[in-house]
Amino acid sequence: MAITTIEYGLFRQFRAQEAANGYAMQACVLAQLDPPKLIQLARRESVLDLAKAGQIGQNTLIYAVLRKPDRPAEFRIPMQGYYAGSVSEEAAQAWMDLR
Fold first, then answer.
1. C-alpha dihedral sign at 76, 90, 3, 26
2. How many domains does the chain have?
3. pLDDT above 70 (res 46)
4. What is the pTM of this model?
5. Edge-first strand listing for the sheet containing 37-40
6. Distance separating alpha carbons of residues 41 and 12, to the nearest angstrom
């Protein structure tokens, strides 16, 4: 599938950043330009559901708003949840299937 990097890769990066540095995700939105579409992603598996249903177009972007913790620490390089073993079994399988 051509949508793999948009569909899950970018979302994984936001979640990895959140976990590694104590950030809190305030909002995550999937935006499509043509035809116009805006979907709030409430949970990680939302992206998987959309991809499996063929509802992610070729011109789709994912935007996230992350909030730094009140007591910031030194920046840590994030590790994707798949490699860290912190994603659900469904998400791990989709990572393999949707490539």
1. negative
2. 1
3. yes
4. 0.61
5. 37-40, 24-32, 60-67
6. 12
